[in-house]
Amino acid sequence: MILSAHQPAYLPWLGYFDKIIRSDIFIFLDTVQYEKNSYINRNRIKTPQGSTWLTIPIKSKGHIQSTLLETKIDNSKNWSQKHLKNIYFNYKKAPRFEECYQKIESLYQHSYETISELCYEHLLFWLKALDVNTKILRSGDLPLSPKKSDLILDLCQQFHADHYISGTLGKNYLIEKDFQEQGIAIEYQNYQHPCYSQLHGDFLPAMGIVDFWMNTDNTALITGASS
Q: How far is CA 106 from its chain centroid?
């Protein structure tokens, strides 16, 4: 049983989906704290001038002490239509624009109170678009330890996982001997980003998923470069 987990992310990059695709179960970690200037509420798309950030505004009061389940979006700002307009103008010449834009336009008609709920519903959209069938569970629905290493170990034990795919930063907090004692192997993701045909000049890796989706339907590329 292969398990992976990650905090919510807006328009996740390909490495996020690589972890999900290679797992039997993926835990959507929405019980962790919000991190400013992270990929939780922002990501990049490609433009003729290079990359640009699309950022979801967060209500700042109290967010440092809040979990992502409690972190509220500032919907007083018309961010969703701005993001949609950016996607339209920067990808209207993409090979799959006609097929894809109407779907994503519909996605942005929904309003969400918290960043967790938005990222979760958007993730389900992307998984369907990419035809990924990994089982997705939210940590907010599970009884878990609050400490990072213990949290991951608890998850692995709950679901009888013998293999855990971690991001590279997991080396900073996972207590490897605890996993070894339980017969759980830790794999630190070493994602080799694939190249694909992009608009606007030289290839830029690690764009938000919308860049990949607008330009190609070859989803085998996502994990084809994994090592």
A: 20
pTM score of the predicted model: 0.94
* Nearest-angstrom CA–CA distance, 130 and 100: 12
User: Residue 205 in 3-state DSSP?
Assistant: coil
* Distance in angstroms (rounded) separating the CA atoms of residues 159 and 148: 17
Q: Which residues contact 78 (CB under 8 A, 6 or more apart)?
A: none
Per DSSP, the three-state class of 208 is coil
- Phi, psi torsion values for 100, nearest 5 degrees: -100, -30
Maximal CA-CA distance, the chain: 53
Angle between helices 97-107 and 115-129 (to 10 degrees): 150
Percent of the chain whose pLDDT exceeds 90: 85
Q: Tokens for 138, please give them.
A: 């939210």
